[in-house]
Amino acid sequence: MSKILIIDDERSIRRALREILEFEKFEIEEAENGKEGLEKAKNESFDVIFCDIKMPQMDGMEVLDDLIQAEVATPVIMISGHGNIETAVESIKKGAFDFIEKPLDLNRILVTVRNACDRSTLVEETKALKKTIKRVKGSSIIGETDGIMKIKEMIEKVAPSDARVLITGENGTGKELVARQLHEQSGRNKGPFIEVNCAAIPSELIESELFGHEKGAFTSAVKQKKGKFELAENGTIFLDEIGDMSASAQAKVLRALQENKITRVGGEKDIRINARVIAATNKDLRKEIEEGNFREDLYHRLSVILLHVPALNDRREDIPLLAEHFLTMVCADHGIQRKDFTEEALKELSAVNWTGNIRELRNIVERLVILAGKTITDEDVRMFSNPKVNA
C-alpha cells in the first residue's frame, strides 16, 4: 500500500485529500505546517508528498528546498489556492513533481498521484538495479588455489592490452566473470561490456543480433537495428559459447576481426567497429575443427591469449571461500540476517561432486540460506544439497 504525506495548514484540505486518497486505498499521514511536514518527510518513508505553498512559519517552497537539499527522492506535488503560471513554473524548476491548483479536482489528483507513485517505484527499481550492477562490476574472482592465482596473474597482464582472449572451461566455472574482469581492468572499462550468448540465439537470428539489420531486410525487420558489435563501440564484446555459432556467422565474425568492419543484414555499407573481442566456450574447439564444425582460421584469430578456467572439483580448497562469499551475497539479496556455516558444513560442501561447478555451488548456498536455520550444519548440507530430497 502506497503511503502519502499531506502538508497543509488548512484542516478542510487535509480532510478532503484524506477522504479521496483513503477511498483509493492509500495510507495517509498529515502535517499541519511546513516544519512538522519536513520532519516527517525526512524521518519516514513516503511514496508521494502533497505540500501547500502558502503556510505560516515555513512555506511550501522552503519545504521543497529543504527536501531537495536533504536528497529526499519522494515526488512532491505542490498545491495552492493562489496559484499562477509563474508559481507553477518556479516549483517545477525547483524539483516538484507537479503543481495542482485549489479547488482540488478529483480526477487530476488521482492521475497525478498514480504517476508519482509510478515514478517512486521506478526510482526504487533503479536504485536496486544500480546496486546489482555495482555488485556485479565489483565482483572479484574468489580463490587462492594455484589455478585461480594463475588466472588472476594472466588477467593483470592481458587486460591492459587489446589482445583477443579465448576463455575455455566447463559450464558454470565462471568464464563470464573472467571476461568482465578483463574488461574492468582494461582501458576500455568506461565503454560498454556487451555479452552475446551464441547458444541462446537461433542460428537464423545470430547474424542480425551480431551485426544488426536494415529496415526491410526480412519480414519482421520493421526498422533499422544496430548489432552487438556496434553497441560495443569503444568497449568489449563477449561472445559466450562461441562453439555453437553457425558457419555463416563464423565467416562474418572472421571478416569483422580481420577488417574491423561489418555490414548489417540487408545493408551494403561497411561500418567501422572498435570493440575488443573476448570469446568463451565449453567445447574442445580443436575437436570441433577436426569434425568440421568450427573454422580453424577463426580459432586462431580468437585465441591470441588462451585462458582455461579450472572446474570446481579441481580447486576444492577454494570451496569454503566461495561458500562464505555466496552466503554473504545471498543473505543480502534476500534481506536475511547473515547466517553461518559450521566447520563440518564447509567440509561437507568440499566433498560434494560439483558437476555444475560454481553455479551449482551458489544455488546450493541459496537453498541452504532459505531452508536451513541460523547456523548451517553438515546435516543441512547433506539434506539440501540433493534437490530430490523432500521433492
Automatic annotation (TrEMBL):
UniProt keyword annotation of ATP-binding present: yes
Domain (Sigma-54 factor interaction) ranges: 141-370
UniProt keywords, alphabetically: ATP-binding, Nucleotide-binding, Phosphoprotein
InterPro entries per record: AAA+_ATPase (IPR003593), AAA_lid_NorR (IPR058031), CheY-like_superfamily (IPR011006), P-loop_NTPase (IPR027417), Sig_transdc_resp-reg_receiver (IPR001789), Sigma_54_int (IPR002078), Sigma_54_int_dom_ATP-bd_2 (IPR025943)
CDD domains per the UniProt record, alphabetical: AAA
Residues with 4-aspartylphosphate modification: D52
Domain of life, per lineage: Bacteria
Keyword Secreted included in the entry's annotation: no
Domain Response regulatory: 3-117
Protein name: Sigma-54 dependent transcriptional regulator
Organism: Wandonia haliotis
